[in-house]
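Section 5.1 Outputs to date
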Amino acid sequence: MSECLFCRLAAGEVPARVLLADEEVLVFHDLAPQAPTHLLVIPRRHIASLDAARADDVTLLGRLLLTAAEAARRVGLVGEGYRVVNNCGAGAGQSVFHVHLHVLGGRPFGWPPG
């Protein structure tokens, strides 16, 4: 997926401020943060969106959530609270079509979002 920004980032072709990385997932700071802390959690393997995920992706999707929680711990968001968001499709705000989670914190959030 050479045209996918997040695939290129996961391959090390695009620089990023990486917080966590292993063989399956990568966590890095968003370049256009929407909160004082704004991290992105991506799988290294390309999945275009949550709608494109298959039953055999269940373990990887669980890893994304657990990694989001670990990232929040590492940057000190646990205790004050944080939000984890997945935008699925352009109408929901997905702009990079590689499934990813946003971990946002450092300010109060309202409900409903948006």
